[in-house]
Design goal:
Two copies of one chain form a homodimer.
Chain A lengths: L4 E6 L3 H21 L3 E7 L15 E3 L2 H5 L6 E4 L6 H12 L3 E4 L2 H18 L3 E2 L10 H8 L5 E7 L2 H13 L3 H11 L7 H4 L2 H15 L9 E2 L7 H9 L2 E12 L2 E12 L11 E8 L3 E8 L3 H16 L26 E11 L4 H11 L4 E6 L8 E8 L2 E2 H14 L7 E5 L3
Parallel strand pairs in A: 1-2, 1-4, 2-3, 4-5, 5-6, 8-10, 10-17
Antiparallel strand pairs in A: 7-9, 7-11, 9-10, 11-12, 13-15, 13-16, 13-17, 14-15
Helix pairs in contact in A: 1-11, 3-4, 4-9, 6-7, 12-13
């Protein structure tokens, strides 16, 4: 029997509580599996006096995360504090410097400081594991770092934000407006009081940054991800998607192109017969397209106390087994610079929704502007204007073209004054 | 830089060719990732003189697999010969005995001799990796052995045989009869001349045996899996499933119950809105339900030269990284005996199709027999008999009950002489 693995856990919120519950329930089973005990020797949280629904057993209480992270009586520091600076960053850096393994669920910290932290981990010869940072209970980090490591990845994409997927699913299933569903999601605790971080696509972008580095063996893209949120999606878009055989999902997509890597977060049309179209509610999914593996899709709970605790525990299991890998697929020195592809060169089909003013020749002028840019149309759906509205909704599906052509055509249409509002444009993702 | 990892590859069929192609294409990228070269030092196949579409480079040719497996100049033996006895078994055993790591895609060998081989591997302190043995390019072994190792698995299930899924998908999409689709599948190379191994469910059962041991930490169930094939599924069943909001899939299911583990391979109704219902053609999928992770679904190519080579390569990557794990989740001494649950206690809903003879009181007598066993019906669909047929097809969907009740009720209905053929019974799987 090997020496026990001694954990210091900082942060006793929902994930920390889930992890302590998991260790209490499965500790003896894990001991059989690992031939090694996992022991929580220290814990730390903001408020020692808070009443919690679980016991910390024989663990020593620390008031300061850095002190816990560097304590001689821990082998592995588990950071569940959150935040990209402050005590989380200080404690993780301190732990790595004194050769403690680190397990963290902190996507914001990693998206911002991942490269420096990975260098520290490599220098000390310890693990920096972060399975729980992306897509909750879905083991996508292990997929990219290990299972598909012998592939050249062509594209990785997924539904990475449960809040957005809940809102879009409910808008579709119950024919509700965005604002009403957002209020419901806030009441249920699926969305924050200030929902910008989720619905604006920023949370998904943090996760996509980590996936991009792992998939393509590049440095983190940091602020080089194109981000659009779901705020502009309305019931007419949801309805049009449905009638055309699609679903609207907020996707994070990173794709190898001839000019670099396209990394983008935006609402997208996906074909309703694709398995990803059936991923609804707060469920997440990630698909990885390797040149040998083909497309491998993973679907599962994207958040929650228990699924996230499961992911954290799998990282701890790897540490207990002595598996130490470069945090981002390859040693930092081998990671290539992130080369961003210009999104104007993105090639694909598009959904366009226009509010066409009822003026003579409006449709002809729109068609001409599209034709001028070489954009051909697969379908046009024109509806009668509502009684109180002089503008008629027109939905277009284009054949494949570049984003530059679409944007220039739409700019020209808007400048012509034939539409009552800024055109809606949603990319159709080929799956 | 560490010493190169030296491979001996036995078997140069489609998977062996795919693996050599992968190593040729991605060898230098892998060297960056692993800080270690992967070198093929020896190969072996049945016929040295066969013209192959690839070069074996500097590798030494061996006529005998056991000689290659024990050669001083290899570290890791890759077995791609196939078969549960003969040279595959002899070479794998020989390799393990002389402390060579083993990577194999051979599900039949493992399902039959996995426990002995795992003991040999443990004794020698080497790896016995078999990612490619189940579900091709889908990394389900790594999921169970590593990513979800800190969970108590409640159920694992999946579409494990591409041939069956191709046949069932095509029957549904093109409204064709079983025999016609089977002939088409044989012509396309998706089914063997003797298709029994696939369509009888035996291939899926081999894979399920491995998944069961890994999911529940038990010894292999060997011949204790309940197996039904897809031969009895006809167009009427496919059509009825569709009209009731289901799809028919050949599933392998292993589930923890209060009396033991239910391990079963059979056609099943799955709700059409479940992601698994959208898994069509030769694609495979596996879902794992952990008590903390929740349900994690993996979807991907179930076979083929490249996806299988990707899985073999991921096993080699693990060997190159020095990761040596117990082959079946826990050390063999810690594996519990496989305790089979009696399928008569299976609790669920059922689809029943009867050919009811047009006699007075037939339906009343059928309803009474169901009632006698406490089986209540959710729906009854009765169709007019075809012109040339005196029997009318009747489709029943039951509420949840035990399999014993269903079987006894159906036996009584048959004994009553009110049906023209043996009743069709298909389990409805709750997802």
């Amino acid at each position: 029997m090997k020496e026990p693995l001694k954990l210091g856990i900082a942060g006793l919120g929902t994930v920390g509580a889930g992890l302590l519950e998991l260790i209490a329930k499965h500790g003896s089973g894990l001991e059989e599996t690992l031939e090694r005990r996992i022991v929580v020797t220290g814990v730390c949280a903001r408020n020692r006096d808070k009443v919690r629904g679980f016991a910390i057993g024989d663990a020593v209480w620390f008031d300061d995360a850095v002190t816990l992270a560097t304590d001689a009586n821990i082998d592995c520091f588990v950071e569940l504090i959150g935040g990209d600076e402050g005590p989380a960053r200080a404690a993780v850096e301190a732990a790595l410097k004194v050769k403690k393994h680190v397990v963290t669920a902190n996507k914001a910290l990693l998206a911002k400081h991942g490269m420096e932290l990975a260098k520290l981990a490599e220098k000390s010869g310890v693990s920096l594991n972060f399975e729980a940072a992306v897509a909750g209970g879905i083991p996508v980090i292990k997929m990219l770092r290990e299972a598909l490591a012998a592939n050249e990845v062509k594209r990785v994409y997924g539904i990475l934000n449960g809040t957005c997927n809940y809102i879009l699913s409910k808008m579709q299933d119950e024919h509700l407006a965005f604002d009403d569903v957002l209020k419901d999601a806030q009441a249920k605790g699926y969305a924050e009081a200030d929902p910008t971080f989720d619905i604006g696509g920023f949370d998904a972008a943090h996760k996509l940054a980590l996936l991009t580095s792992l998939a393509f063996g590049t440095k983190l893209p940091a602020d080089q991800i194109h981000i659009e949120g779901i705020q502009t999606i309305n019931a007419a878009d949801i309805e049009a998607a449905h009638s055309l055989g699609y679903r609207i999902k907020l996707l994070g997509v990173a794709e190898r192109t001839s000019t670099g890597i396209e990394a983008r977060v935006h609402p997208a049309f996906v074909p309703e017969e694709a398995p990803i179209a059936q991923v609804s509610g707060v469920t997440n999914c990630v698909a990885i397209e390797g040149d040998f593996s083909g497309s491998v899709l993973l679907v599962g709970p994207g958040a929650g106390s228990k699924p996230t605790a499961s992911a954290v525990a799998s990282d701890i299991v790897d540490v207990a087994r002595g598996l130490v890998l470069p945090p981002f697929l390859k040693p930092v020195a081998q990671l290539k610079p992130f080369k961003r592809a210009n999104l104007s060169g993105h090639y694909g089909s598009y959904y366009i929704r226009l509010s066409v003013l009822d003026r003579p020749g409006a449709m002809a002028s729109i068609a001409k502007r599209m034709g001028d840019r070489g954009v051909s149309l697969e379908s046009i759906v024109q509806k009668k204007p509502g009684t109180s509205d002089a503008a008629a909704p027109v939905v277009l599906i284009t054949h494949e073209t570049t984003e530059e052509n679409i944007r220039k055509a739409l700019d020209a249409i808007e400048a012509d004054g034939k539409v009552a509002a800024r055109p809606q444009m949603i990319r159709i993702e080929e799956l």
